[in-house]
Specification:
Blueprint: H1 2-18, E1 35-38, H2 45-59, E2 67-70, H3 77-85, E3 92-97, H4 98-106, E4 117-132, H5 140-149, E5 156-158, H6 165-176, E6 186-188, H7 192-200, E7 206-210, H8 215-220, E8 223-228, E9 252-259, H9 265-279, H10 282-291, E10 294-299, H11 300-320
Parallel strand pairs: 1-2, 1-3, 5-6, 5-7
Antiparallel strand pairs: 3-9, 4-7, 4-8, 4-9, 4-10
Helix pairs in contact: 2-10, 4-11
Length: 327
């Protein structure tokens, strides 16, 4: 009986190893109880991306039960600091993007992205210039005419701090149309939810945000898009590009994933494997199409090199626009 029992047990192990998805030791299988930190408020672009990725991970049967939680503040610097404190935690990732790169530069963050473990870049998306449906500005030309006449009287709102995408995009537009960026009245909100309230309550004349954050409000007619910052028009959005309207600016935001410093090699491999499988999954491809995101996948060390390049690029860009120092 003992021999038969041992034989049955051995055969069961062999069967489990042979079944698809049951092989022990696959890197992504090590990520039970994974948490994803969002360094902005609910409703922000980071939040939408993180929750969409978590659902796709589950739908694709890569990881189940991923917890997404928000820790807003400082344009992402509060979340970045928390990530630094979680040294060696192989069950934590942070969804981030261009805004965090800018914030660490402009706010002298005590923890920088160079202290984190790069996992992967995921997507790119254009920004949009939006107004309410009852706005007096029927097109971008009318908005720019009023803006040029009195920059301080035409405030723009964004969901990122200085150096973030919602801040950089209008500053680049201002510079392109002859407005000194330092004269722009930029009002910062902590994520897309707070910015949406400000736009709808007419606290700002117009807003700049990521395309995916206001897809529902655009579809319902609450918001009108005056321009997209991409090279080409965006399918499903009835708005021309900036260049079509004689504003020579092309701008895109990007988002990716980093993890705490000091991770074991096995944990890094597990995270990169999980994100690679997410990237190759049908649920993720469906999400890209739904939100108008462009696939910009870049793995591991290459993503780390990209982060360094972005930090250097933003330092030059902000300096050139005269937005360093007090900003």
């Amino acid at each position: 009986m003992r021999r038969i029992g041992r034989t049955l047990a051995a055969n069961l192990v062999l069967l489990l190893v042979a079944l698809p998805g049951c092989a022990p030791g696959r890197p992504a299988d090590d990520l039970a109880e994974l948490r994803v930190l969002v360094p902005n408020a609910p409703g922000s672009g980071y939040d939408v991306t993180a929750r969409t990725a978590a659902k796709a991970l589950e739908d694709a049967d890569v990881i189940r039960g991923v917890e997404v939680f928000n820790l807003p503040g400082g344009g992402g610097v509060v979340g970045l600091r928390r990530l630094g404190y979680e040294r060696g935690n192989g069950r934590l990732m942070m969804l981030m993007g261009l805004g965090v790169v800018g914030s660490q530069y402009t706010q002298n963050a005590p923890v920088t992205l160079q202290d984190t473990t790069p996992i992967a870049r995921l997507i790119e998306e254009p920004a949009i210039v939006v107004v309410t449906r009852e706005s007096p500005y029927r097109d971008l030309a009318e908005l720019i005419a009023a803006w040029r006449a009195d920059p301080g009287a035409v405030p723009v709102g964004g969901g990122s701090s200085a150096g973030g995408p919602d801040h950089l995009a209008p500053m680049l537009v201002a510079d392109a149309v002859g407005i000194t960026p330092r004269e722009v009245s930029y009002r910062q909100y902590d994520g897309g939810g707070d910015l949406l309230a400000a736009i709808l309550h007419h606290d700002v004349a117009f807003g700049v945000s990521g395309l995916s954050e206001y897809a529902d409000q655009i579809a319902s007619g609450q918001l009108r898009v005056l321009a997209v910052t991409s090279e080409q028009r965006v399918p499903g959005i009835l708005a021309p590009t900036l260049r079509e309207q004689h504003v020579d600016v092309v701008f895109s935001n990007w988002r990716g994933i980093v993890a705490p410093p000091g991770l074991a090699e096995r944990d890094v491999a597990a995270m990169r494997d999980a994100v690679a499988r997410l990237h190759g999954s049908q649920p993720w491809r469906t999400a890209l199409a739904r939100y108008g995101w462009t696939d910009a996948y870049l793995d591991g060390p290459a993503f780390g090199d990209f982060l360094t390049e972005e930090n250097d690029r933003l330092a030059v860009l902000l300096g050139g626009l005269g937005l360093t120092g007090s900003h």
